[in-house]
Specification:
Radius of gyration: 40 Å
Shape: rod-shaped
Strand order of the largest sheet: 2-3-1-4-5
Distance between the termini: 36 Å
Largest sheet: 5 strands, mixed
Strand content: 5-15%
Number of strands: 5
Structural class: alpha+beta
Number of domains: 2
Length: 380
């Protein structure tokens, strides 16, 4: 059974883009809500022009809402969150720039000017260039508004506005640059930590697998076999079902090692392990208990089926040729034990299967089982 692929982790750029979208949604949402709400200040401070200001704010609300919707719902919002947030804030700056030359209480409207710059510099998780772009839009809009206003703006108000904007522009750009640097370090550190955690989890999983796996054959090792056998016996006792154990030894394995070396012996064990593993069901356990001794655990298996499988494994071994000596150079002796219900005790099953294996080893290339089943052709 294949292991499902782990989900792909975001890169540093993807992580920054995701965080930029979150901050863009926050900044744009606040601007879209606050800008029309400032109509209350218009009524309180500049009632003579409050109506025209309301019309400008409502007109500006349309592109702001469109940009916010695209940011929230459309793919472009995930690809270009900074552009859309900058569009919202630029709309706010254009509105305020148009209003400043037309009001008496300039300082309150300049406050709105600086708030948008500070929002970009302190809330946006994006490249500092976007705050720089907003600063450029702000100065351009303010200069255009002063030049095109129906009445000249007093010189002291222009100077005050310039002082406000210079201060806010410098602070916003520097704050954004510092936040961007710190955010980059934070993202890099977090992604490195997550990568290290993934490596650690993979290493622990590998160590856990190795602690239950025979390194030569890839079969279950003795530790896992003991755990699986105990659990299967407990299940059989609880449900009253049958449980079969097959023990197998490679005949004359020492001769294989003497003739072909340990490399040949290892190759033979791997081939036999593959033959056993390919013939059992999902849920059965094939283990290497040590040396050339192998075992198969067959939950819910009747005696006749256990013996038939053991015979199938014996026949499969005859077809293997690990060292070029030809088919039949490897043979297996197998002992089968089956218990049901309360008779399913690990020590009892193992001892019975081992006794039958001992009988099989007397003649070699044989399957031996209990007296409860007739021996098929070729089975002692």
């Amino acid at each position: 059974m294949s292991t499902p692929a782990a989900p792909r982790r975001p890169t540093l750029d993807e992580d920054r883009l995701a965080r930029a979208r979150e901050s863009a949604l926050l900044t744009s949402g606040l601007a879209t809500a606050i800008c029309p709400a400032w109509s209350g200040f218009d009524l309180l401070l500049e009632p003579e022009v409050a109506g025209s200001f309301l019309a400008v704010r409502v007109a500006g609300l349309v592109p702001m809402l469109v940009a916010l919707w695209v940011l929230w719902r459309r793919p472009l919002g995930r690809r270009q969150p900074e552009l859309l947030a900058c569009t919202v804030l630029a709309t706010v700056q254009a509105e305020i720039a148009w209003m400043v030359p037309r009001v008496q209480h300039v300082e309150f409207y300049l406050l709105g000017f600086t708030l948008a710059l500070f929002a970009s510099g302190c809330l946006m998780v994006s490249r500092p260039g976007w705050t720089g772009a907003l600063v450029g839009v702000t100065w351009t809009a303010f200069g255009s508004a002063v030049l095109t206003a129906p009445t000249s703006m007093p010189a002291e108000d222009v100077l005050a506005a310039g002082f406000y904007l210079v201060t806010a522009s410098v602070i916003a750009v520097l704050a954004h640059a510092q936040r961007y640097r710190l955010t980059g370090h934070e993202s890099s550190a977090r992604l490195r930590l997550e990568a290290e955690q993934r490596r650690t989890r993979a290493l622990l999983a590998r160590l856990d697998r190795l602690s239950h796996e025979d390194p030569l054959t890839g079969l279950a090792n003795r530790r896992r076999w003991d755990d699986e056998l105990a659990a299967a016996c407990a299940t059989a006792r609880g449900s009253g079902t049958s449980l079969a154990v097959v023990l197998a030894d490679v005949d004359h394995f020492k001769q294989v090692n003497d003739l072909y070396g340990h490399t040949g012996g290892d190759r033979a064990l791997r081939l036999i392990a593959g033959a056993l593993r390919s013939r059992v069901r999902t849920g059965d356990v094939v283990a290497r208990l040590g040396g050339d001794e192998l075992a198969v655990l067959l939950p819910g298996t009747r005696p006749d089926r256990a013996v038939a499988l053991a015979e199938e494994l014996r026949s499969a071994a005859l077809g293997l040729d690990p060292c070029g000596a030809g088919p039949g150079s490897l043979t297996l002796s197998l002992g089968v034990a089956v218990a049901r219900g309360d008779q399913a005790v690990p020590e009892r099953l193992t001892a019975e299967a081992d006794a039958h294996l001992y009988r099989a080893k007397a003649t070699r290339n044989t399957v031996c089982a209990g007296p409860w089943t007739p021996a098929p052709v070729g089975v002692a």
